[in-house]
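Z., the sequence and structure:
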Amino acid sequence: MHQENHSIILFDGVCNFCNYWVNFIMDRDKENRFKFAALQSEKGRELLEKYNLPIDDFDSFIFLSNNQVYKKSLAAFEIAKNLSGWLKILLLFSFLPSSFTDWIYSVVANNRYKFFGKKDSCRIPTKEEKAKFL
């Protein structure tokens, strides 16, 4: 389904905030470590089913790497480990209890449409981005 040398980020394809972070990660992923799929897409659904995850819960992005599933703040920390630059500062918070960091994540996730808006449909990758999407 995917090449083993790529990690996969599943994200809410209609969320403006989520799409901002997908663009942010793509711009900094110089080694092409990541592939992306909207949670609402056919590939997203296939991966959710493969890993026995709910197929209708779009409140968390999912990070799949080496057959491991990371959600919420743990996903953010794992992604930060694989990027260079200032984003690594997030790792300072990885030592806090995940119940606390997931709570913060959930507050943002539950209000993301109100704060950042949403699109009517999932993003369509540009010609240049297509290779990064499943």
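Residues 7-132 form one domain. DSSP finds four helices and four strands in the chain.

Let me know what you think.
H.
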